[in-house]
Amino acid sequence: MNFLSAFLFALSANLDNFAVAITFGMRKIKIGFFINFFIAAIIGAGTFFSMSIGKTVSGYLPAGASNRIGSILLIGIGIWFLKDFFKKPQKKEPEEQGQKIDLNRMLKEPEKADMDCSGTIDAKESAVLALALTINNFGMGVGASFAGLEIYTTTLCTFIVSMLFITLGYHVGERCIPKFLSRYVSLLSGAIVILLGIYGMLF
Predict the structure, then answer these.
(1) What are the φ and ψ backbone dihedral angles of 29, each rounded to 5 degrees?
(2) 97 φ/ψ sector (left φ>0, alpha ψ -120 to 50, else beta)
(3) What is the value of pTM for the model shown?
């Protein structure tokens, strides 16, 4: 069951990757294999780092307390994702002069990751994109570690699912599948994280 929890965490953590890749596919912004690998490696490292912090902190807590705190944290993060889904869309801000990196905006408008408008995501751009995706999942990693998920299994699952979702998402977008799927990222991610939290609390 620990593998199932790790796999569900990886699915939730990488739904943003899937939505981003759909946008890239629709706009024909290419992502090479090594760039995909690089992004997955950074996200995997971020998962390992956040879960390591969670494991270290949980070591100072009474037995059983860390699991409950982690479960509550995951449920809270899941509710936050649901809140983001139901939030009214904001008006787009006017473009500013120069290339100012906005990690939050990059997740909402993935095409901004192609900063030089070359039609290809290079190493520098992929590092910035991966950083945005990693920061977005940091709290989930800490909560997952508190809830008792095994670090190495979860990190490996996150890496593999990231590779698969970026590849799959790109091909889905490239074949002109409507981008409506990206709207439901927060809903799906929130639901999965809440289920993980409830599972951790009950078992």
Answers:
(1) -90, 110
(2) beta
(3) 0.74
